[in-house]
Design goal:
This protein folds into two domains: 134 residues, HAD superfamily/HAD-like (Rossmann fold); 68 residues, Putative phosphatase, domain 2 (DNA polymerase, domain 1, Orthogonal Bundle), CATH 1.10.150. The chain contains nine helices and six strands; from the N terminus they run βαααααβαβαβαβαβ. The structure holds 1,6-di-O-phosphono-beta-D-glucopyranose (B16) and magnesium ion. 1,6-di-O-phosphono-beta-D-glucopyranose binds next to α1 and α3.
Length: 214
């Protein structure tokens, strides 16, 4: 029985995934590499440093660690600039309604985002009080597809992983949820997320009656 829902942030609750893409694309231009939406899929759900390494690998660029830190910081500067211009309306449709149904049914709500900016983002959106626990990129060692982030969220919620349902937009995130022994709803592209127990194109189109049937 599902007793807790654990939400990814970027790409599930809000389209910050698009801001990550814009900032990486801007950085990649500096070394004459055109980042495509397709390659960007590989960056979803993974840490900032790992994302940079993937971009550099595709661009055939090799750099020393100090330079990589500088580039990651620059990308994050742009990303946080975009994020600070966001407003609460950018929360995806259906999110508030889903939260209130879960609360009514006594199902716990957690956040598990690889982003080190997650707390800032949920505050900008005004949804920080919706979560019984928030686990972000500052609290984990291994990023998705490792199950660490979801296992930590379940532990903090006091719920068995088998009784948790994860909502994820990234392939790496779906793998992490399954590796944690949880059920998973993929939010986005069916072909990319087909390993999830169910795939919907947006939170709004998740059929609440399916929650206990996955
Ligand atoms: P930051 P999520 C992830 O968030 C993003 O999907 C991923 O693209 C990003 O690289 C990662 O956070 C780290 O973000 O640079 O802000 O620490 O999807 O797990 O909520
Ligand atoms: Mg995501």
């Amino acid at each position: 029985m599902i007793k807790a829902c654990i939400f990814d942030l970027d790409g599930v609750l809000v389209d910050t995934a698009h801001y990550h893409f814009l900032a990486w694309k801007r950085l990649a231009k500096e070394f004459d590499y055109e980042l495509t939406e397709e390659i960007n899929e590989e960056l979803k759900g993974v840490s900032r440093m790992k994302s940079l390494e993937i971009v550099l690998q595709h661009a055939n660029v090799s750099l020393e660690n100090q330079k990589k830190e500088l580039l990651a910081d620059r990308k994050n500067g742009w990303f946080t600039e975009y994020v600070h211009n966001m407003n609460p309306d950018e929360l995806f449709p259906g999110v508030r309604e889903l939260f209130s149904r879960l609360r009514k049914d006594n199902i716990k709500i957690g956040l598990a985002s690889s982003s080190k900016n997650a707390k800032t983002i949920i505050e900008i959106l005004g949804i920080q009080h919706e979560f019984e626990t928030v686990v972000d990129g500052t609290m984990i060692v291994h990023s998705k597809p490792d199950p660490e982030i979801f296992l930590l969220a379940a532990k903090r919620l006091g719920i068995d992983p088998a009784d948790c349902l994860v909502f994820e937009d990234a392939e790496a995130g779906v793998e992490a949820a399954l590796a944690a022994g949880m059920k998973c709803v993929g939010v986005g592209n069916f072909t990319k997320l087909k390993r999830a127990n169910r795939v919907v194109d947006s939170i709004q189109n998740f059929n609440y009656h399916d929650l206990q049937k996955l």
